[in-house]
Amino acid sequence: MKYRITAACAALAVMASVAPALAGTAKGKAQCQMLSAAKLDDHFARFNAAWATKNPVTVTALFDDDAVLLATLANAPRTDHAGVRDYFVKFLKGSPVGRIDTSTIKSGCNWAMRSGTWTVSLTDAATGAKSDVKARYSFLYQFEDGQWKIEHLHSSVMPEKVGA
Question: CA 119, CA 14: separation in Å to the nearest integer?
Answer without folding.
Answer: 48
